[in-house]
Task: structure prediction
Amino acid sequence: MRIFSSLLALLFCTTLISQETMNDSLPYASIPEAPENYTPGKVVSRMIDGLGFRYYWATEGLTEKDLSYEPGNEGRTISQVSDHLYGLSRVIVNCAKKQPTDFSQKQPELMPAEKRKATLQNFKTASELFKATDDIAGHKIIFIRDGTTSEFPFWNNLNGPIEDAIWHAGQVVALRRIAGNPINPKVNVFLGKLND
Result:
């Protein structure tokens, strides 16, 4: 029995260390330094950095119970909102890469921590690509659905996926507060870091 307890404690510690290591490698625990000058690409990049910071802290420390929380009235669970945020991050990063988002391709099933990491990585990649360009007009949103391709100007990325993702990150914050697990009270979205 003592060996079993020791093994269980070791497994628990290993899991915690593994989660901490995964979190250490995630972007957006704080917002990166702002560029010295303003260009269209750098402004879009900064918007995505703000989104990444909000998403990081909206999803930091969510439990399985939180993820399954449903507000009622046929509202989405936090897990379902997280799925949607991941989908939006794919559209944002594909726009940055000048690649289509193909909805006919089945996406791999991701565990919550994997989905969170992939979403944050998509935001980071998109931010870096936009920061390096001044040709915003060349970054169209392209969708492939049922063999049909549709194309939209970059403007739709601003009022569509980027703003929608900000909206839903806020929704996660509200839902987790209602579920009894509010975000870290030290989060300062104005400064893009945790208060001391």
